[in-house]
Amino acid sequence: MQQLSYATIAGLVQAAEKAGVPLSHLVLADQAQQLERTPQSLWEQMDQSLAVMEESAQMGMRPDIRSTSGLTGGDAARMQAYAKGGSPLAGGPFARAVARALAVSEYNAAMGRIVAAPTAGSCGILPAAVLTMLQDRGASREACIYSLFTAAAVGMVIAQNACIAGAQGGCQAECGSAAAMAAAALVELAGGTPDQCAQAVAIALKNVLGLVCDPVAGLVEIPCIKRNASGVAGAFTAADMALAGIKSAIPADEVILAMKWVGDAMPAALRETAEGGLAATPTGRRLHRQVFGDQPAGEML
């Protein structure tokens, strides 16, 4: 088997179609070869990652959870209660996916153990998508583990051609990349083709082009946690469109390159410096003073 370069999404799709296997099967076999490990050992490692995702989603649902700054916590429990007892506009599984994204993100802000997927700031999106398929839509654990390999491959392509860091490319590079990874995983879990995975990647990522990174008080809490919730919403939307046969007019690889261009053009104030966007609003500055006193935000970074 020829080693994969992870240079393009199109290349991965072509290789999977040629082999007649889902993207995840191709990636698992390739990574085992490149890392000189057995597929079983990589499988077990990914199973452990899924277990951490499960734990963080569960722990983050506690109503009493609070971040170390005191700025956030408890919203996942509120969303979960609404999903159970209310009438969610988009349906129960969708509302529970949002609750899981909030839970993992709030657990991260409370210094809990999470899986950076691909970063800590975007850690709630992929777990929320995959766990919703596992716990609400009847997907097998085996299929969910496989889907994480597909998500990982998408992340590797994005990291190689653009970036996954908010400080470099804005939140489009973090929550946007995570949403694209989750969309591909969802499509595969729903029985979609490798090409439909690629379409979902393109749709999810292009819908958040230009999303800035503007953490209030320089902390990965506001607005990051709620952006994880919107990220999983975008992943489900992109996956459903791709599964319906809708194609992105701009191919996934070109969307990734566009994200890089946008990120490079983004002012430093909008790339995790806490000097612009929501962080620079009157309330954002007040919350900074609430946590750090009168020390300027720039000195905290």
TrEMBL record:
Name of the top EC class for this enzyme: lyase
All residue ranges annotated as the Serine dehydratase-like alpha subunit domain in the record: 19-279
One GO process term, biological-process aspect: gluconeogenesis
Keywords: 4Fe-4S, Gluconeogenesis, Iron, Iron-sulfur, Lyase, Metal-binding
The protein's annotated pathway: Carbohydrate biosynthesis; gluconeogenesis
Pfam families attached to this UniProt entry: SDH_alpha (PF03313)
Cofactor: [4Fe-4S] cluster
Keyword check for Metal-binding: yes
Annotated signal peptide: none
Catalytic activity: L-serine = pyruvate + NH4(+)
EC number(s) on file: 4.3.1.17
MF GO annotations: 4 iron, 4 sulfur cluster binding; L-serine ammonia-lyase activity; metal ion binding
Family: Belongs to the iron-sulfur dependent L-serine dehydratase family.
Protein name: L-serine dehydratase
Species, as recorded: Candidatus Anaerotruncus excrementipullorum
